[in-house]
Design goal:
It is a single chain. The chain is of the alpha/beta class and 187 residues long. It has 3 domains: 1-32, no CATH class; 34-120, Rossmann fold, CATH 3.40.50; 122-187. The chain is built from 7 helices and 6 strands, in the order ααααβαβββαβαβ. The chain has a two-stranded parallel ribbon with strand order 1-4. A two-stranded antiparallel sheet has the order 2-3. It is flat and about 60 Å long. The chain starts with a helix and ends in a 19-residue tail after the last strand.
Length: 187
């Protein structure tokens, strides 16, 4: 997605404030890596680099190879720019874990771990309520399936109060339109 967004800057010059030369500079600043093999090659490098990876909570994908290669070196920094949900590898790193399990082995974390807060692409409560206000007809039922339980329930109450809609925050493994339907064990 980030690769496509970067290319869109140049493809749509009239839609933003950057000049053509600024777009060329932005689009050529980074080496875009598309294949798994190119990504693995990055993990073998020992030269200074900034690697931007898309797995926000370090739960899977190519970022795991990068963490495995670079987390043990105190000269490196692992920088998170998004929310780290409880129980994820990203949350463990952000909380100061001395080691994280990757591909079945514990990898020591000697790199600096830092975070930039406030860059989330998710809408906040007000933006969600404003968006919902644009619906011509209410949905039969609204399900809130993202976020921590307490804020999700607060948003549920806000939607119910403002719009008088039927809103649910499903429990883990709950499914279907009716509350209480649970997925069979093991699924």
């Amino acid at each position: 997605m980030a690769v496509d967004a970067t290319r869109l800057l140049y493809a749509h010059l009239g839609e933003h404030r950057l000049t053509a030369s600024q777009c060329v500079a932005v689009c050529s600043t980074a080496k875009i890596v598309n294949s798994a093999e190119e990504s693995k090659e990055l993990s073998r490098t020992r030269e200074p680099a900034v690697i931007i990876s898309a797995s926000g909570m370090a739960t899977g994908g190519r970022v795991l190879h990068h963490l495995k290669a670079f987390a043990p070196d105190p000269r490196n920094t692992i920088l998170f720019t998004g929310y780290q949900a409880a129980g994820t590898r990203g949350a463990s790193l952000a909380a100061g874990a001395e080691a994280v399990k990757i591909h079945g082995e514990y990898v020591p974390v000697r790199a600096e771990v830092a975070a930039i807060h406030g860059l989330s692409a998710h809408a906040d409560r007000g933006e969600i309520l404003d968006w919902l206000a644009g619906f011509r007809a209410p949905p039969r039922r609204t399900f809130l399936t993202h976020g921590e339980p307490v804020p999700a329930d607060a948003l549920r109450r806000a939607i119910e109060e403002r719009f008088r809609w039927d809103v649910a925050v499903p429990e883990h493994l709950e499914r279907g339109a009716l509350a209480g339907q649970r997925a069979p064990a093991g699924r």
